[in-house]
TrEMBL record:
<dbReference type="Pfam" id="PF13250">
    <property type="entry name" value="SNIPE"/>
</dbReference>
<keyword id="KW-0175">Coiled coil</keyword>
<dbReference type="InterPro" id="IPR025280">
    <property type="entry name" value="SNIPE"/>
</dbReference>
<feature type="region of interest" description="Disordered">
    <location>
        <begin position="1"/>
        <end position="76"/>
    </location>
</feature>
<dbReference type="Pfam" id="PF13455">
    <property type="entry name" value="MUG113"/>
</dbReference>
<feature type="coiled-coil region">
    <location>
        <begin position="91"/>
        <end position="183"/>
    </location>
</feature>
<feature type="coiled-coil region">
    <location>
        <begin position="313"/>
        <end position="350"/>
    </location>
</feature>
<dbReference type="Pfam" id="PF10708">
    <property type="entry name" value="DUF2510"/>
</dbReference>
<dbReference type="InterPro" id="IPR018929">
    <property type="entry name" value="DUF2510"/>
</dbReference>
<protein>
    <submittedName>
        <fullName>DUF4041 domain-containing protein</fullName>
    </submittedName>
</protein>
<feature type="domain" description="Bacteriophage T5 Orf172 DNA-binding">
    <location>
        <begin position="417"/>
        <end position="500"/>
    </location>
</feature>
<dbReference type="InterPro" id="IPR018306">
    <property type="entry name" value="Phage_T5_Orf172_DNA-bd"/>
</dbReference>
<feature type="compositionally biased region" description="Low complexity">
    <location>
        <begin position="35"/>
        <end position="68"/>
    </location>
</feature>
Length: 534
């Protein structure tokens, strides 16, 4: 509820009144009219002066919420211009009426003063309260900023201290790791097949016998240096014990022998347990032993001589070369035995076939003689045809026995054992080549091999060699070339076979892999299921 329109005292300018339009203050101002005191005695009763109308009640609410900060609530309205009624002074009893009017005016002035004081107090309290609240908020903000700044500084300090500690710890760990790397030999060994060219002979010789002889000569040199004074180990010559140079030399000699014994023990252990692919690790360990002896014997200047150390390193190199050469010779010997075994089996098959054909020919000759004696010309002609076929078979066997390059070339795979991208390309001189395939499908592989190509050639050795050279970069085993496995698909081998032979009557592109598919139906279904389009 808002106050009605009218003139109200202006709290901003004392002694002024301001017009309130019912909604807001206007800019219209006017001086307040002074209140009359007691009725003047000089007034005549015939011309009474009209008294201003005084409103007994003032609006209890503020004129407007938007102007609440501008002024307090008006309490009393005194507007002679807007008075609607006037107090009439009777002719008789004017003094009494004047006293009553004066009394009423004093009461109203007191009430107005009370209202003005209350309004002033309330307005001042609002301003003071707001000022105090603002000051309190500013104080709290300053305190919060100071606290946040302090916390931030503490956090930054803690972070810097933590970073410094971490950096110190990191540097310490790095130094410790570096020390360990210089003291401890890395024992990780690379367990990789010795591919062609990976192992390099330090001292190439013709065979293992020459390596053994060279090792014997080297070991004799080592013994000579050990017996020589200062040949294997050197030490201080001016060491004294209790002022005695003799006792000093004795102590130095004993400690030198002890250090040399430790060095030789480590070197001998490395030689006994050496593998060709461990050579670098063994040499590194022996270098660490030399450094350790020099560090521990620093007081007496004890150290292993460089010439003796070079001899022991050469011993390690020759030992590794000897073992590698010996292993390769054994592998070659095993391959040669396997080749001779294959040749022997093929020769035995040919001998048996030749013996069978000759027995068959002898039988046909006897039958032919009887048919001729009986005069059966037609049967005799049929027998001559069969006899001619037997003679041609004997010639074929003799030709294959004489021509060692003739034989069967085969391309086989094992899907269950090696996957889709691996084939074996080889040849056999056996009369029945499938016997060789069945031998390969022995207990060493879980499933039988599948044949993709199998054909006879007068130059089977040449075709096999050409195929191996073509797929050399895809060979599985680069050390043992008798392991004729290659990372290739049957379709890739077919193109090269057609190029070499010019005509390939039969070739199976897809392996049957019967046992594998029966053993793994789920895997077969997953392989057979089409791949969804991306």
């Amino acid at each position: 509820m808002t106050a009605p329109a009218g003139w109200y005292p202006d709290t901003q300018q004392p002694g002024q009144q301001r017009y309130w339009d019912g909604q807001q203050w206007t800019e219209h101002r006017a001086p307040l009219t002074p209140h009359p005191t007691a009725a003047s005695t000089s007034q005549t009763t015939s011309a009474p002066t009209p008294q201003p109308t005084v409103a007994a009640t003032a609006p209890s609410t503020r004129p407007s919420t938007s102007s609440a900060k501008q002024t307090a609530n008006p309490a009393v309205v005194v507007s002679p211009e807007t008075a609607t009624t006037a107090v009439k002074i009777p002719l008789f009893g004017a003094r009494k009426a004047a006293r009553e009017a004066s009394s009423e005016v004093e009461r109203l002035e007191a009430e107005l003063a009370s209202f003005r004081a209350e309004m002033a107090r309330l307005g001042a309290l609002d301003v003071v309260e707001l000022q105090r609240e603002r000051d309190d908020l500013q104080t709290q903000i300053k305190q919060a900023d100071a606290m946040l700044k302090l916390q931030r500084e503490e956090m930054v300090g803690e972070a810097q201290r933590a970073r410094a500690e971490m950096q110190t710890e990191s540097n310490s760990q790095r130094e410790r790791l570096q020390r360990l790397r210089t003291q401890i030999v890395t024992t990780e060994e690379t367990a990789v097949l010795q591919e062609a060219g990976i192992y390099r002979y330090q001292h190439p010789l013709e065979n293992s016998v020459e390596y053994k002889e060279e090792l014997s000569r080297l070991q004799d040199q080592i013994k000579v240096m050990v017996r020589a004074n200062g040949g294997a180990v050197t030490a201080a010559q001016d060491w004294t014990v209790n002022g005695s140079a003799a006792q000093g030399r004795s102590m130095v000699r004993d400690y030198s022998k002890l250090m040399l014994r430790a060095y030789n023990a480590e070197a001998d252990n490395l030689v006994r347990g050496l593998k060709p692919y461990k050579l670098a690790t063994a040499k590194d360990r022996l270098e660490k032993v030399v450094s350790t002896i020099e560090r521990l014997g620093k007081t007496m200047q004890i150290r292993i001589t460089p010439s003796y150390h070079r001899l022991r390193l050469k011993e390690l190199e020759l030992t590794a070369d000897y073992q590698e050469k010996l292993a390769r010779e054994k592998e070659q010997e095993r391959e040669e035995k396997q080749r001779l075994r294959e040749e022997r089996i093929a020769q035995q098959e040919m001998d048996r076939e030749r013996y069978r054909l000759r027995k068959e020919r002898e039988h046909y000759c006897n039958v032919l003689d009887k048919l001729i004696a009986n005069g059966d010309v037609e049967a005799a002609d049929r027998m001559r045809v069969q006899l001619h076929e037997v003679d041609r078979a004997i010639e074929d066997v003799d030709y294959r026995a004489a021509n060692i390059r003739a034989g069967y070339v085969y391309v086989i795979s094992n899907l269950g054992s090696f996957g889709e991208r691996m084939v074996k390309i080889g040849m056999t001189r056996r009369l029945e080549p499938m016997d060789r395939v069945r031998e390969l499908s022995d207990a060493s592989v879980p499933f039988n091999f599948d044949v993709h190509a199998l054909f006879f050639s007068d130059d089977a050795v040449g075709i096999e060699t050409a195929m191996h050279q073509h797929f050399a970069d895809k060979r599985v085993n680069h050390v043992n070339h008798r392991r004729e496995f290659f990372y290739a698909t049957p379709i890739e081998t077919r193109a090269k076979l057609l190029e070499l032979t010019g005509d390939l009557l039969q070739f199976e592109e897809t392996p049957l892999a019967v046992e594998f598919r029966q053993s793994n139906p789920a895997a077969v279904r997953s392989q057979a299921s089409p791949t969804p389009d991306a």
